[in-house]
Amino acid sequence: MDTWLSNGFARSLTLGFMIACVCVGTAHAQAPSTCLDCHAALDPPLQVTQAQFSQDIHAQKGLTCASCHGGDPTKADMDAMSKAAGFRGKIQRNQIPELCGHCHSDGAFMRKYNPSLRTDQLAQYRTSVHGKRLLQGDTKVAVCIDCHGVHDLRPASDSRSKISPLNVAETCSRCHSDAKYMQGYGIPTDQYAKYKSSVHHEAMTVRGDLSAPTCSTCHGNHGATPPGVDSVRNVCANCHVFQAQMYDKSTHKPAFQSAGLPGCVVCHGNHDVSFPTDAKLGTGPEAVCMRCHKPGDTCDQARAKMLLDLTQLDNAFKSADRVLTAAESSGMEVSGARTEQDQARDSLTKARVTIHSFQTELVEQDIQEGLKITAKTQAEGQAALAERDRRRRGLGLSLGIILAVLLGLRLYIRQIENNSHNVETAELHR
Amino acid sequence: MTLFAAMRNWIEERFNWADLTAPLREKAVPAHDLSYWYFLGGITLFLFGIQVCTGILLLLYYRPSATEAFESVQYIMTRVQFGWLVRSIHSWAANLMIFTAFCHMFSVLFLGAYRKPREMTWITGMLLLFLAMGFGFSGYLLPWNTLAFFATKVGTEITGQVPVIGHGLKVFLRGGEDVTGATLTRFFGFHVALLPGLTTLLLLTHIALVQYFGMSVPPAVEARWKALPSEARHIKFFPNFFLRELMAWYIALGVLGALAAILPWELGTKADPFAPAPAGIRPEWYFMFMFQTLKKIPAKVWFADGDVLGIMAFGVAGILWVLLPFFDPAGDKRGRKLVLGAGMFALSYIIAMTIYGYMAK
Fold first, then answer.
1. Are residues A354 and A303 located together in one domain of the fold?
2. pTM summary value
3. B39-215+253-281 in CATH: which number?
4. Is the pLDDT of residue A386 over 70?
5. Among B176, B94, B146, B137, which Cα is nearest to B280's?
6. From the CA of A323, how many Å to the nearest CA of chain B?
């Protein structure tokens, strides 16, 4: 009890002191600082250069070293770091969330800088696996500076920031992919490698879609925790709304729930979600249905029917596309059919979404709608090709007539010139 | 009595047929190894005639507004009987006409046909070429597709760089600060009223001057004929030269038909003023040498703005080019050398910069 009291008392005292330092530092935001004069010349980890610190969002907002570390930056040499000046040196890892949270949890204070910024980070952090373990004394877990950086901290909107959507996965992987560091936690360390092979990573990095999911999209950021079996569907449904609605209608939902299976992940995987192809409905290596179902049962028959329908529309779409491309490359104007072809693609996409209901009649409706459109676009493409051929035949005929006229003219010129050559020459030379 | 003879009699009773046709009967064209170059002017005239006819047909369906222009051209291309042919021929003939006009200009220059007394024929011809390029620039925007929209934006932006009057000129061309539906309506007006009116006047003057002075004989041939008058050859304009010209027109018609049927002129996608500019915006090929030059001039040349300097240089070069015959007033060797040198330089520069413009990424 004594220990607890003394620890608690010491912690309260330190925290009170840090808060006082932050307030003093903020009040003297624009005061001259001597800290960087020395720290720029030191070796890492004590090194902080002006170039580095000038990029820091806090420095840009007027906060100084003393805002977090205390001391008196207006004094030269070691006087700046005297205890009398309130200097407290390096912040202990377990004190970092409280220190950051002192300002970031204060709505009135944060409004002065960024009114749209949330102020529940500390509260969220306390619910996270990281926060809970830190409270239990595990200082290896992530604290604010591990993800956000320190001394060169940039906002998430800056693509150089460690927490920019483009960099979040790599930031998490610095700990979570390090097998040695993660030893003892009993979780895999291949998430980042798997994520890099996923369609989500491709969307983010290749297509530049910053809204594509990264670690924090599914796990949360300050409240980071693995989604439980029950919440996986909700996590995916944030983006894949219609698939989730269809899944809710399906017989799979209650079956998965009773078997304790995590919804979407069962067929699609988690970190390594690949681009879904129709082969998932097949019986080959990518097939997922046959992992649970038996060949020939009712569900297998439904699977085969849906695959057949999808393949039929896919082939019809591709066939119409080929005809339209051939017409376009011949210079034919088929933009109207192209627009309709987009609608056929939408029907195919819709059918692939409807698959999640696992109801063949619903899938069939979308397929029939798409097939009607592809039949029309195919006919329009073929009509354009027939028109192209007609034009070319017309050209051949016209060129034949032109050649005949040219030949006739040439012969006529020769004839009249032969007849009058001598007379004309004599007249013109007069 | 045949119909033709009846008509001839009818005219003969009222007018003197022999007097009417005398100029045609008496007109002669020099016949020598380089006579083929004489056809270029006629082919350009033929292509202009095609432009007028196809342009009138397009007017029956075209609607000059930002909301309807693209759709109306699309309608012409897909729904109107032979609309695709008329539009493709109009576009191809425009390009071929400017090409043959350039060839005609350089042939006139290299064969010395600009010399006294034909200075005004050269000047009216040059003005006609500028008008043809104006037709091209204004007509390019009319289908209101993406490429044309952004190319017009760039083109009119360049106009804005002209010192003193640049901004005013840009606003006048655009009908405002930006390229909008107002620009389209304005360009349509230029394309179907202002430019055709000016072109008709200049074309009639140009043809009248050609008729008045007759065909020029190249200096080398002229010298040979002077030394040996018995070598001088002429052919009758009608029917001998006229029928040959007719053959050239038929060949041009065949080329035009083949291009229109095998490579129909593309329509592209409808212009979206709020969309980002697509990659590879390029002007029509006949503006490419100027566009590429302006691209390559550094932003600052000494104290002057690079673009302004480039535009000024092209302006001065254009004026000097129009006045080219006056640099060879006596038709002596020195003046001829100067003009030929300028012609060779201009031709090489235009070809090289055009190729560079298309090759450059």
1. yes
2. 0.70
3. 1.20.810.10
4. yes
5. B146
6. 17
